Amino acid sequence: MFNLLPPLATDPILGLISRFQQDPRQQKVDLGVGVYRDAQGNTPVFASVKVAERRLLESEQTKAYIGPAGNPDFNLKMSELIMGVQHSRLADLVLMQTPGGCGALRVAAELIVRLAGFRGASAGTRPTLWVSDPTWGNHIPLLGNAGVEIKTYPYYHADTHQLNFEGMLQTLGKVAEGDVVLLHGCCHNPCGADLSIEQWQAVSDLANSQGFIPFVDMAYQGFGDDLDADAAGLRLLAEQVPEVVLAISCSKNFGLYRERVGAVGVISQQPNAVASHIANIVRGIYSMPPSHGAAIVAEVLSDEALAKSWREELETARTRIVSNRRQLVEQLNTIGADGRFDHIARQKGMFSFVGINQQQVAKLITEFGIYMVDSGRISLAGLNPTNLDYFCESLIAVMDT
Length: 401
Ligand code: LMR
What we know:
The protein is α/β, with parallel strands linked by helices. It has helices at 15-22, 47-59, 72-83, 100-118, 139-144, 165-172, 197-210, 227-230, 232-240, 271-285, 292-302, 304-334, 343-346, 358-368, 388-399; strands spanning 29-30, 93-98, 128-133, 149-154, 156-157, 162-163, 180-184, 213-218, 244-249, 262-267, 351-353, 370-371, 377-379. The protein has 2 domains: 10-45 and 307-398, Aspartate Aminotransferase, domain 1 (Alpha-Beta Complex); 65-302, Type I PLP-dependent aspartate aminotransferase-like (Major domain) (Aspartate Aminotransferase, domain 2, 3-Layer(aba) Sandwich), CATH 3.40.640.10.
């Protein structure tokens, strides 16, 4: 029977990992997957994480089940990290550990589908989830496969490299009551263009006037401006909008990619009922999340000294990316780019669109061994002193083709 299944192409982002690894060229450059790299091109384990792991190894007493909600210390500490300890809606938030931000997104989408059933949507009517155009490539399958209908709102002008806020507002101004609108909390993936706090305010006003539910995907807290500033939009929504959904990832800001650590959250007036449904959904998908990664995060955030050292390590990673953005633009202008890529220095987080077409991307990969997503999205963390000039020269070389 399985011979009925046609083989599929590899994932457009993850497939780049093996393509890059198989490339024998010495001078190859990996600007594909969003993984932080240091100036030597490594993705080291945070020192604070190593300390926490050593402690856990010594102190862990059991490997018994932890239950669908995961680690309670992790849930508490992450609630405080994301909302701020003083936030007035902390008590309305239910937050539960999930296997990565992907697990959080999927559980949230399942909850949205379930909620539509309780709202009386007739069988077969799918709830609508609005995503930005563009958005992270995996949002659409990950959320859509849960049974939501995906629609898009304009977000970015590819030609001017600016946020299309007017277009966004126009579309969100027509969104129906009860629809869900996915927003990138900070460091928009793939375009790096974020909302200002005034723009978050306008979205909040629209959510209240239209009655849509904001759903904030926070995968890069700490990589934009700082941990608090990056959560400012989400905190504002949580203050002002009765119901908000959250998906959080610890992959990047704790460097725990392969441990799969994240959290799903809902702010509402019925946190206990919501919690019971999330636990029920989780039980029906993967039963409960893995323990190790969340135990590390809980240990780091519970110890003041360790938390401080983690914050410093995260800040080092953030400033390296900011400096990569600046150096890239300077070098490109030095060799004749004439301001064409200046948007990259203004944008935030791991990613920006270079602003090249698919043929030019293909040429960079095949002729120069420089890997990036088809859309021309680059991961800025992949640049370092040994490959910056090569990347700039290669980019300029493909610009005229
Ligand atoms: C990315 O966008 O490159 C990362 O979020 C990794 C992934 O899973 O796609």
